[in-house]
Design a protein that fits this description.
By secondary structure, the chain is an all-alpha fold. The protein has one domain: Growth Hormone, Chain: A. 82% of the residues lie in helices and 0% in strands. Helix 2 runs antiparallel to helix 6 and helix 6 runs antiparallel to helix 7. The longest helix is centred in the middle third of the chain and has 32 residues.
């Protein structure tokens, strides 16, 4: 099996990247359509934003389901089932005619897409040691980072020429392509354990074993809280850029692509500096950087100097920090696990998306017609992550990773 994996490394990494990106792409592509969907459904933008929150909740809960299944039945079978659910839910999103059903079907769509996120992380743990895993996570982040560049621009293009439903038609086609690639070209990396129990008590026991591991807990929280600032940005960016600063749908897509390119820059630098620095050292410095940027945003907002070019530059710098934090903390959080890689990956993803759902929901709840909710939530998550890293991280062994 390992020989086959080595000989097809590029194809496998590409498929793993696509599996990781299907969720983010499903988020980013319809962001420019919030106002159009709200108008079509005769509702408000903040109601449409709830379909984003329901997506995050679906991903968070769904990963807890797939984790044990990946450990018992291997990686591919649960993954293929999840992709089929994604395809079905996307069809339902195309056919929906009201915002309430859209919120529900986006939840179902998330339940399908999260299979790819859990399985790809578990497969990395099957193949690689922690330091190499951090480099592979950086490669996957490159694919993930491309989605915010392509997706909003593609969504805006479709809105300029077609109805918003065609955004979901495009997602359906993407889902079918990934399903076919996974079935035909992705080899199984772990055959599963027949003795792995799916009884609730056993599943909870396995999750608890993962959760009480101090390395997992600290770096899961550090990465998840820092990453949730990105979800706050996703929830608030459409309103802030299009309604507050007056950008058109096409301009919003270009602005979104610019700030998302920060993650591409970060992930490629991260791969290089991992040869000299550890994941812990890199993520600490990135935490400090992200918090400094967050404080600068607050100061500019309070002094009424947060003009659009300044905001765009600061968000670029903020996401630059995210591009270093996410791959390194993910690799560190999963490093203690092999046999429970599926459960560990699921719990990590659940916490990441659960906190993301909370922060994106807070942006909607605090919506007041200004950039304040988005900026405040982004700043709070960055500073909180930094504090956890420095207070709890010093007692963790494994500084060599």
């Amino acid at each position: 099996m390992q020989q086959k994996i080595t000989s097809n490394r590029t194809v496998i990494l590409l498929i793993l990247g696509l599996l990781s990106a299907v969720g983010p792409f499903s988020i980013d592509m319809y962001l420019p359509a919030f106002q159009t969907i709200a108008k079509d459904f005769h509702t408000s933008v903040d109601q449409v934003q709830l379909s984003l929150s329901s997506f995050f909740i679906g991903i968070a809960l769904g990963q807890l389901i797939y984790g044990p299944l990946l450990d018992k039945y291997g990686r591919k079978k649960p993954l293929l089932v999840g992709l089929l659910i994604y395809v079905l839910a996307t069809v339902l999103c195309i056919l929906t005619r009201d915002v309430e059903h859209l919120i529900a079907f986006r939840f179902l769509q998330a339940l399908g897409s999260c299979a790819g996120m859990v399985a790809s992380r578990a497969m990395i743990q099957d193949y690689y040691e922690p330091r190499e895993a951090a480099r592979v996570f950086s490669l996957l982040m490159l694919v993930i980072a491309i989605s915010p560049i392509l997706a909003p621009s593609a969504g805006a293009f479709l809105l300029n020429h077609l109805d918003w439903h065609y955004i979901f038609v495009s997602l359906l086609i993407i889902g079918l392509i990934i399903l076919a690639a996974t079935y035909f070209f992705l080899p199984e990396s772990y055959l599963g354990r027949a003795d792995f129990s799916l009884r609730p008590k056993a599943i909870i026991s396995n999750f608890w074993e993962v959760f009480r591991n101090k390395t997992f807990l600290v770096y899961c929280l550090v990465g998840s809280i820092a990453s949730s600032g990105l979800y706050a940005y996703l929830a608030g960016s459409s309103f802030v850029m299009q309604q507050h600063f007056g950008l058109t749908q096409s301009q919003y897509g270009l602005a979104f692509a610019f700030v998302a390119s920060a993650m591409i820059v970060a992930t490629q630098i991260n791969r290089a500096i991992l040869k000299r620095w550890t994941s812990i050292q890199i993520s600490r410095i990135a935490n400090i950087w992200q918090s400094a940027v967050a404080i600068t945003m607050i100061v500019c907002l309070l002094t009424d100097t947060l003009h659009f070019p300044i905001l765009l530059t600061l968000i670029f710098c903020y996401l630059l920090g995210h591009g270093f934090i996410f791959p390194n903390t993910s690799a560190m959080a999963l490093s203690p696990f092999k046999a429970l890689a599926g459960s560990a990956s699921a719990l990590l993803g659940c916490v990441q998306m659960g906190i993301g759902a909370i922060t994106s929901g807070m942006v909607s709840v605090l919506h007041d017609g200004t950039p304040y909710p988005m900026v405040i939530v982004m700043s709070f998550t960055a500073i909180s992550s930094l504090l956890i890293h420095f207070v709890s991280g010093r007692s963790i062994k494994g500084e060599g990773y």
